[in-house]
Amino acid sequence: MGLCAVGFGLLGIFGPAFVFVPLALITAIIAIFMGQGSWGFVGLLLAVAGVLSSPILLGMIGFSYFMSLFDFSGMMQTVTDFFSSLMS
Hints:
- The chain has one domain (2-87).
- The longest helix has 17 residues, at 17-33.
- By secondary structure, the chain is mainly α.
- It has helices at residues 2-14, 17-33, 37-52, 55-69, 73-87.
- Helix 1 (2-14) runs antiparallel to helix 2, helix 1 packs parallel to helix 3 (37-52) and helix 2 (17-33) runs antiparallel to helix 3.
- It is elongated.
- The chain has 5 helices and no strands.
- It starts with a helix and ends with a helix.
């Protein structure tokens, strides 16, 4: 399982990170709990490197942080009220 974590971590860095980085995180955590601590830790480090080298994942993290800073529920309430008035 630890070898899979390292493999997925490397694929997350050099391949499509939005697919392989979560797989690397999951398999690294499983490997750590199965007693393969060194392989799991290396897989975990490679998964973090995959997140930091992926513009898509960094954009998702940045956008979620941006959304948490502002209260968009008030704006979205007016939009949902507008669309519900159109439907009725």
